[in-house]
Amino acid sequence: MSRIAVLGYHKVGPPGPGAWETWYYVPEDVFAAHLTALRDGGWQPVDGATFLRGLIEPGTLPERAALITFDDGYRSVLDVALPCLERFSFPGVLFVPTDFVGRTNLFDAESEPEEPLCDWGELRELERRGVAVASHTASHRTFSELTPSERALELERSKAVLEAKLGQTVQLVAYPYGDDDGAAAQVREAGYRAAFGYGGGPISMPPEDPYRVERLAIGPDSNLEAMLHGS
């Protein structure tokens, strides 16, 4: 039986000018150590397309698969994380809230320092270099605070904008703050094939619910080896 560990990162590298350290900044050396732990532990990182195929044909996945994901679209993913990924020849997936592409993380203004997010040209570069771009909805609002029609619009608008700007079919989405609020049917109706929460451990494939795939919440103090072994 195949198992997959979906790792959930936000920022990689030091805070930018005027910013301060929070749990969501993973130092570059820690990130590289995590990639080493995956490689040495026999976990084989796969891309988004391979993950999607594994939903239908789990036997096509390695026995120990990993999916490396990043939320929000921080420019540090391009500047710091991507070179590390390329050294290991590992792919990744970046979930972006489309209303904030090329801007800053104002959706987290009350809790996180302001940092630049990738613009469309930078997102296209990430796509070219092995990091697929997927949906983090449009406005990054918490689903439990939205009406059903607002959630549907968030999902549909983000998918349409990403596909128009990047020329790629978008089938993956990550719920802002990991809050799905029972939106699986709406996610499916919007044309996505899988959706990700935030928090949890490795799972067996196929997942019980492809519209609530949990991810390992990764910070600078995360003991990844222990998390991969479920302890």
Which blocks of ≥5 consecutive residues have pLDDT under 50?
Answer: none
Indicate the CATH class: Alpha Beta
Shape verdict: globular
Q: Give the strand content.
A: 15-25%
Largest sheet: 7 strands, mixed
Mean pLDDT: 97
Number of helices, where a helix is a run of at least 4 consecutive DSSP H or I residues? 7
How many structurally independent domains? 1
Return the CATH topology.
TIM Barrel
- SSE string: EEEHEHEHEHEHEHEEEH
Tally the beta strands. 11
**SS content category:** alpha/beta
CATH-derived architecture = Alpha-Beta Barrel
Calculate Rg over CA atoms. Answer: 16 Å
Distance, first to last CA: 20 Å
The percent of residues in helical segments reads 25-40%
Under CATH, the homologous superfamily reads Glycoside hydrolase/deacetylase
Could you please describe the fold and organization of this structure?
This protein is an alpha/beta fold. The protein has a single domain, classed as Glycoside hydrolase/deacetylase (TIM Barrel, Alpha-Beta Barrel), CATH 3.20.20.370. It is 32% helix and 18% strand. It contains 7 helices and 11 strands. The strands form 3 sheets. Strands 1, 4, 5, 6, 7, 10 and 11 form a 7-stranded mixed beta sheet that branches. Helix 1 packs parallel to helix 3. The two termini are 20 Å apart.
Task: Set out the fold topology.
Elements lengths: L2 E7 L1 E2 L12 E2 L1 H13 L3 E2 L2 H9 L7 E8 L3 H14 L3 E5 L23 H9 L2 E5 L12 H19 L5 E3 L9 H6 L4 E3 L6 E2 L11 E2 L6 H5 L3
Parallel strand pairs: 1-5, 1-11, 2-3, 4-5, 5-6, 6-7, 8-9
Antiparallel strand pairs: 1-10
Helix pairs in contact: 1-3
